[in-house]
Amino acid sequence: MNIFNCVEENGKTYLIYEKKPEEKLDRLTLEMLENNQIPGTVPVSFSSKADEVRMKYEITGLGTLKEYLAGEVKRNQILAVIEAIADVVITGGDYMLLQSSYILDESTIFVNPQSEAVVMIVVPVERIADEPCAFFRKLLFDLHYDQSEDCSFVAALLNFLGAKEKFSFDALKKEIFTLCNETLNKAITDVKAAPVTTGEPFSDLQDKKDSSEELYQQKNTDQWEDEDDSDETVLLGEETEAHFPRFLIHRIKTGETYEIKEKMVRIGRSPSVCEICLLGNRGIGRIHAILHVNDGNVYIEDNGSKNKTYLDGEQIIPGEKPKILHSGAKLRLGNEELEFEIC
Q1: Digit-coded pLDDT (tens) for 172-223
Q2: Residue 287 and residue 265 share a domain
Q3: Are 160 and 263 contained in the same domain?
Q4: Does 35 share its domain with 119?
Q5: Are 325 and 300 in contact (CB under 8 A)?
Q6: Residue 322 to residue 287: CA distance in whole angstroms
Q7: pLDDT digits (tens, 9 = 90+) for 302-323
């Protein structure tokens, strides 16, 4: 989409958009962009002369989405990107930005190389919206996937995008969430421990069972006179109530504690998408790692982070099976130290 001119000024890079005479300015969007720092949007300044309006977007240090997804991409990487785009557009709705204001093009959607945050260009003119389904389908078709991973999620996404129901970015986010959970459940099934055995051969157990039955038959009925045959059941005290463990993450640097309450919890530096947001650390990815709760256990996987995730000193390789966390486990995300606790 060649509607921008790229210029270099004083060591900074800008994209310039000049409103055409036939285009109508969307003044509400213009005011929102001028008066707010809207998450996920490229910073923009405006200048006008007579009926001419010039928009100047600073993209210094940013890479295009096309560059970010060049080469072989991993499942978590593309799912995170699609979810991030959906989050940006959904967040824009809180500022009354129209979907049609966002430019859906892999050459003008940008990724911050430090935080891996996705930022998009908003053009405050009345225009026909870019077709999101067509954009995402083209994106998925053009990518080169890591063949060592299960790529069935691509077909699932294409089926979702081709469905007859009306598309929405909220529905897209739900589809991403479903795909993440399905893949997680499969991975967790693979890493679960083998069935626990008693350590005794079955034949020995059967012999013990038989001898126990013989002893039972030999007992006199008067030996069981003290047995309570009453119909009433005594209500037990609080000491026998079930204990449901709490899962906590402690941030060592600040002393903050976060409780894991959802089936899936994202850790990163983006407050718009992460349940555990580690603010103030540029070494943390937008969604750096993901925690999953399954069958009373907590698992962690690295989300393709730039500065890596470590569990008790060992790196968690992106795309590998999630690792189980035990109470007292030490986590390091980039240079951020965390501790996991079960209480």
Answers
A1: 988 888 887 766 556 555 554 444 444 444 344 444 444 444 444 444 444 4
A2: yes
A3: no
A4: no
A5: yes
A6: 16
A7: 988 888 999 999 999 988 889 9
